[in-house]
Structure prediction request, 882 residues.
Amino acid sequence: MIRCLLLVLVIALVAGCKPNAAPPPPAQHFGAIDANRLVHAADQPGEWFTAGGDGSGAYYSNLTQINAANAQKLGFAWDYALNTNRGLEATPIVVDGTMYTSGNWGRVYALDAATGRELWTYVPELDAQWGRYACCDVVNRGVAVWQGRVFVISLDGYLHALDAATGHLIWKSDTLTGRGPSDFHYFASGAPLIAGDAVIVGNGGADFKGARGYISAFDLQTGKFRWRFFTVPSDPAKGPQDQPHLKKALDSWDKNYDWSIGGGASVWDGLSYDPGLKLIYFGTANPSPYAIGKDAPGGDELYAASLLAVHAQSGELAWYFQEVPGDGWDYDATQKTVLTSLEIGGTKRSVLLQAAKNGYVYVLDRATGELLSARPFAFTNWTRGLDPKTGRPIRNPFADYTQRPKLIFPAMTGAHSWQPMSYNSSTGLLYIPVIDAAMIYINTEGRRAGLVEGNFNLVGVMPEDYDPQGLASLFGPLPPMNEINKGVAHPLHSRGVLRAVDPLTGRVAWEQPGSLWDGGVLSTAGNLVIRGDSAGKLNVNTADTGKLLQSIDVGTSMMAAPMTYSVRGEQYIAVMAGYGGGTLFMPLPPGSAARNYGNAGRIVAFKLGGAEVPKPPLRKEEPFPQPPPREGSATTVAAGEVLYSRFCARCHVFDVGLLPDLRRLSAPTHQLFYEIVLRGAYRAKGMGRWDDVLSQADAEAIHSYLVDRAWSAYEQQPQFVLQSADPALGAARFPDKYTLNDFGCSGGNESPPLRWSGAPKGTQSFVVTLFDMDEHNTPSGWWHWVVYDLPANASELSAGAGVVNSKSLPAAAHQGRTDLGTDAYHGPCPDKSDKPHRYVFTIYALKVPRLSVPPDPSGAMVVYSLQEHLLGKATLVIRHGR
Prediction:
């Protein structure tokens, strides 16, 4: 007996355990979500089980540790770089301390939610040619997590089931109806939906010829195909409709419709599920093509621009509600929905809420599809209103653009796009990311532009970009703006607002200004509404009044909705940050973080007591390189303009955009141009081949047009030149009479005058800097510089003019830099030295009247950024010493 006790004690000591030690914690189960846990999500507010938080899709959390009283203390917790510069639209999921989310192309990331430490990543094998087929960037809107698995659909339409613990592939299923040469190239960007024992996915493509919308169901365990629901009829010439709901739909289409176009009505986002009713809800996209339909039977084009409910087990239609019959304005009904309960007429109703692209908030009975309410949440003029009983739009003849361009609200972006709204049942308010903007709709039939891929025969131009003279080469004579906006009683300035709206009455409780393409919304029981924006700010408002409590400078533009969770008792807020998506065809907005800092994607997490968010390096504005010699005749260049507008302009804008400005091609890229465009030399980078629609002659016309545009930009850019005003300095060596002792400082010796010309248009002030290096381009001894702040009418700098401040720094602070880039410093007055030196003068042209740079009495280095104010710079290097 004693021997046994001793043996037990020895084992305990060897194991390093005390006899009464607690048992080890159970092994962590990754991705442990099931139906019971999801239904009781409110009992576990620290988890974030779905993209919308729980089964309702409300983007609402019961967490209160971060609240209106302490939100000012919110700061940086951690970030995780995604090594991409494309759009990021997913909202992460957090289960038991692990974060799961998706990025470009359908890549999946698993992280420690408390630290951001990477656990695993999954990169799907796919053909990057699909980057060409996607209308709106290579985005992905999230994953689904269920019973230890993570589900994602990659851009090329394959559904992947992964082990939540390791990221290893369990199964992979093809969700597309065909991949042959004559099949339409669907693309997929929406998050999968778990519905019972199946996973449901849709796809995109309704903006292109050939798309026929559908959703598909696959077995959760095996990936085996279950059923498919088509949203529009098939070509009746090929036989009868094979699904009952399509027989009714066929009668709503024009008898002369060209079925080779496909019908459209894709389901590219916004799936939801009611486990009690066992119904799947989703909205459909526009019909293909956009066309003003007749306001009578034969023109509704079912089931495009509609909300539908489908039985999860069979895939059969339960009900539908069409929001825009005969949609001619690109008003998809794919916006995310919220499943909740509202008291209506004294009765509690289970409802579905949607703030639709067309500018109306719809409240429908979830079981029957009965319209309970429809109220505008934004200014519209495409309709005169809705029939109060049926919800059918009352057509506004003004919105018919078939004969003349028309200014129509909302724009093709919609009054609300894919960015998630949030619903807070305590306040009873929807928090909607509203796009308050119009477009000039131009019918391109009969105009030189003709077909524009991704828009059919319709082009939308923002009011700020509407220039009849500049657009004439593609669209011919266009009416002036004062004629187009006649009778439109709403400001034309395109803007975004965060708007708190009562879903039943349409009453606006409050709103906060934003920009055109800001992020989705999170609300919490801490009386908070949280949203990122394109300027790179995470804004925290009170949910009841909208008061701005905190605006955190993240330095990265945000489109995705934030989410919140807790780990070991500490609450975090996290967001995927990266700009892109549906504004691919537009330049990066002035003032946006994407334009100022570049668009390096990352996940950023915040907590109370956190630090300042680290920002990316500032983006450098480079001058246009000298293009190759012009080529092709004027006729060839003109043909290239049309082809570029048709096939290229939806991705490559002539400005700072998400993808390269092709006027800035390097010499090697010009040499590879035909290999890239026709034979896919850059296919691995996402630039697919185009030889299926472009001939060699077409590619040559496009290249001729690009070279012509490149020369125009190169010749028109200011040739900003900095020179010495003293002819003796022409040899790039200081004469002895300029000692540079106390350069520009009061009481100093004579300093060399500088002169400049060709300042960029819009310059309001200049900053001139100086620093010196030895002959090996490294600082010797002390690094010296001076900063001047000069008015816009200045053209010459002489001793003492406009000096801001001066200081000295040790050479080690320079760290090998050969110019100041876009950071300017308070600087010192250089000391005289007989050693060989190179003095580098740089002048910065700024778009602000003057910089406010107070002197620093402490003597410490002060750095301030010029990037957001910079229009151009020029440099002069002069040798000094023997």
User: Anything to note?
Assistant: The longest strand covers residues 870-880. The chain has a mean pLDDT of 86.
